Amino acid sequence: MACSHLPDMYNKKLITNTQAADDSVRVNWMGTAGLYLSDGETGLYIDPFVSRYGLFKVGLGFSLKSQHRLIKEWIAITGGERAQAVLVSHSHYDHVMDAPWFAKPANAMIVGSESTANVARGAGIPEKQIRIIKDRDSVVIGKFKATFIKSIHSPALFGKIPWPGNIKQPLIPPTSASAYREGGAYAILIEHPKGDMLHYGSPGIKPGIFDNFNADVIFLSIGGRKNTPPIVRHVLTPLHPKTVIPIHFDDLFGPVDKQISPLIGVKMDEFWETMSDKNLAFEMKTLPIGEAVVLFP
């Protein structure tokens, strides 16, 4: 996998696949904040998003719709034909727009805020498949337990949170990106007998929310952050991770592609410089796009 637009340190830290038992916990990164987790028995998506549009169409308010051919391809790539759940960290278009269409083929449950529920309703997902959460609510999916921890979105657009507010009625596509209001941002702690993971869908800083939690692996969105040291202090250090994996730094206005190009303004060099501190107690790793990687054998 070539990553010519990323710092050299990125490739040196790449997690590669290893031979593992059928019940190992695996992750497949789909670009942006999208993940597919599986333990061989249960599968779940988090923030799956592959229907990318150019900055011109997004910024000027063109109507967007999910690209069903791509979604079908990515369900096959990830092996998510029988996924039991789709978890959504917040309801911006690049986190929730495709979620109902990943859920539909498997009749999977969609879990998220009331805004996420209204995206699901607008796509025709039955109410019985929708689970609305609040701060510290948990849902059990097979051997996985997902706990939603109320966090805060980063000020990613000109120092402000983009498209704040809630989606108050069923959102019927196609529609503009700005119609997908944030709806509240959540970190998602995924506990499993083999190891615990935290998905941090937006790198906002809300001190104290992780004081009573631990995670072996953190999937850390780094696009839109101001700088990295506050994230280390308020997100990573309290959780005592063994491994930190950056996500949501790739160019979401281009196609999902293994040739990763970072989003403009993502400050990858600053991130890697901060993470190179030898006093940090965790290891940095990176993921390829579209390849299942073993997290816990």
Write up this protein.
The structure is a single chain. By secondary structure, this protein is α/β, with parallel strands linked by helices. The protein has a single domain (8-296), classed as Ribonuclease Z/Hydroxyacylglutathione hydrolase-like (Metallo-beta-lactamase, Chain A, 4-Layer Sandwich), CATH 3.60.15.10. Helices cover 20% and strands 21% of the residues. The protein has 8 helices and 14 strands. The protein has helices at 8-12, 55-59, 68-78, 93-96, 99-103, 114-122, 229-239, 268-275; strands spanning 25-29, 35-38, 43-46, 85-87, 109-112, 130-132, 138-141, 144-150, 186-191, 197-200, 217-221, 243-247, 283-284, 292-296. The strands form 2 sheets. Strands 6-5-4-3-2-1-14 form a 7-stranded mixed beta sheet. It has a 7-stranded mixed beta sheet with strand order 7-8-9-10-11-12-13, with no helix packed on it. A hairpin with a 5-residue loop joins strand 9 and strand 10 (197-200). The protein is globular, with a radius of gyration of 17 Å. It starts with 7 loop residues before the first helix and ends with a strand. The model has no long low-confidence stretch (mean pLDDT 94).
